[in-house]
Amino acid sequence: MSDTIFGKIVRREIPADIVYETDEVLAFRDLNPQAPVHVLFVPKRPIATLNEAGPADAELLGKLLLAAADYAKRQGFEKDGYRTVVNCNEHGGQTVFHLHVHLLAGRRMTWPPG
Ligand code: DGP
Questions:
Q1: 29 beta partners
Q2: Ligand 1 center to residue 18 CA distance, Å?
Q3: Beta strand 18-21 with 101-105: parallel, antiparallel or unpaired?
Q4: Ligand 1 centroid to 45 CA: how many Å?
C-alpha cells in the first residue's frame, strides 16, 4: 500500500498528540474532533482498509479494540460509555487509508449515524 499521513505519524516524521502506545498500536488525538475525546487507534503495521485485513491480522485487530477500551476506561468513560468506529472506503467515510479505530467519548452519541 502507499504511505499515508498515519504512517508518517507512526514513524514520528510528523507531529501528533500521542496519548497511548504499545508495541503494535499507536493512538493520537484526531485533528478534527467529533466529540470531547476523539482518539484514533492505528496499527503500527499498516493495513489499508478492513477489506485488506485477513486471518493473520485477527490478533492485531483485537489489540486495536482492546487498546481503545483500555484507554477509554483509564479516562473514566467505562460507565457512561463511548463509541468505537472503523470506517471503510467511500460510503463508510474513510479518508485515510491506514486502518484505524475511532474512539469517541465525552458526549451522548446518536444512532443511526449520519
Ligand atoms: P476516516 O475518515 O475514518 O479515514 O478518519 C480519518 C480521521 O483522521 C479524520 O477524522 C481526521 C483525521 N486526520 C486526518 N489527517 C490527520 C492528521 O494529520 N493528524 C491527525 N491527528 N488526524 C488527522
A1: 39
A2: 13
A3: unpaired
A4: 17
Q: Which atom of ligand 1 is nearest to the CA of 100?
A: 3
Distance of CA 58 to the CA centre of its chain: 16
pLDDT digits (tens, 9 = 90+) for 81-106: 999 999 999 999 999 999 999 999 99
pLDDT digits (tens, 9 = 90+) for 40-66: 999 999 999 999 999 999 999 999 999
- Look up the pTM and report it: 0.98
* H-run or E-run covering 7: helix 5-10
CATH number of 5-105: 3.30.428.10
3-class secondary structure per residue, 48-109 = CCHHHCCHHHHHHHHHHHHHHHHHHHHCCCCCCCCEEECCCHHHHCCCCCCCCEEEEECCCC
